[in-house]
Amino acid sequence: MYSLIEMLRYKRPEGSQTQKEFCKRFLEPTFGLPDLHGNYILSVGDSPNLCFTAHHDTVHRLEGMQNVLVINDVVSVADATTSSCLGADCTTGIWLIMNMIEAKVKGVYVIHAAEEVGCKGSRALVADDPEWLRHIDAVISFDRFGDKSVITHQMGLRTASEAFAESFADALYMPQLVADDGGSYTDSNEYASVVSECTNISVGYYGQHGVNETQDLVYAEILSDSLVNADWSLLVCERDPAVVEDTWGDWGTRGGNPDEDNIEALKVMIQDHPDKVAKMLDDWGVKYYTLMEEADIDDSKYYGDYFNDSEMYKYF
To answer: What is the pLDDT of residues 164-222, one digit of tens each?
Structure first.
């Protein structure tokens, strides 16, 4: 079995040397070389109708190797001063996929590039319209926090049916997995206009994108065993990918610019859920003054004369 702990030692911001070394060590012996967009693709079995995905980049700010710590079957960063996150997002997803391939579970397996910088690898792959994609009924990403979610909506749009979510839990004999309409955005969303069911599954990490990120190793093992022994014939695939079910109003995708649609979706999400968005950014280690600097925002609107440029940083 592949070592999740060893995989987690690699800090892999998109385009980094450590990312390339990780792919050469863990992916290329099984997948061969990537496509033109950096995606690793492997088909197992005859005429597979399911696609399982993860991504090989992480949100680490710096590349290199890191030490990790395991206490009571939970893994975390050993030294938060030298690493910005654990990287279980999406290393655990890769580990699950490698175990499924080793067990010869039928499917098309894709480890995407550049998910953390805008799902660039998956978007380019879908645009290429490979022949195998035309026969896929479901795209299943392993890139969700927690231990209960079968994502049905991403960015406010339905990408998987309730029937699929229920049948997925049945197929894995994991009744704790339930439909979750609170998905944000991952690679499976890029397939939603051409594939019936596009979801994201909880893999047992918490506090993603921040120094407090952890991975539950017990849950990862249970999920891995369930995926290997699943009865995939139980899956129900009924969503019509041509129908846009918009739960956030009338901004939806109507054949416009995907980047502009995403910006509009983010605006709505921030307006409707400011507390959740602020908490998420804080969990990721994002500071308010970093956002202000990057967006060139005048902080006096928010703090008046309480802080000046020289005083602000001593409080953080």
So the answer is: 999 999 999 999 999 999 999 999 999 999 999 999 999 999 999 999 999 999 999 99
Separation between Cα atoms, residue 314 and residue 3, nearest integer Å: 42
How far apart, in Å, are the Cα atoms of 108 and each of 44, 134, 176, 272? 6, 12, 26, 37
Q: Can you list the domains of the chain with their CATH numbers?
A: 4-234 (3.40.630.10), 258-315 (no CATH)
pLDDT by residue (tens digit) across 224-246? 999 999 999 999 999 999 998 87
CA-wise closest residue to 155 among 296, 18, 283, 264: 264
- Measured CA distances, 283 to 86, 90, 200 (Å): 13, 17, 20
Distance CA 26, CA 3 (A): 10
As a whole number of angstroms, the distance between CA 98 and CA 281 comes to: 31
Q: What is the 3-state secondary structure (H, E, C) of the chain?
A: CCCHHHHCCEECCCCCHHHHHHHHHHHHHHHCCCCCCCCEEEEECCCCCEEEEEECCCCCCCCEECCEEEECCEEEECCCCCCCCCCHHHHHHHHHHHHHHHCCCCEEEEEECCCCCCCHHHHHHHHHCCHHHHHCCEEEEEEECCCCEEECEECCEECCCHHHHHHHHHHHCCCCCEEECCECCCHHHHHCCCCCEEEEEECCEECCCCCCCEEEHHHHHHHHHHHHCCCHHHCCCCCCCCCCCECCCCCCCCCCCHHHHHHHHHHHHHHHCHHHHHHHHHHCCCCHHHHHHHHCCCCHHHHCCCCCHHHHHHHC
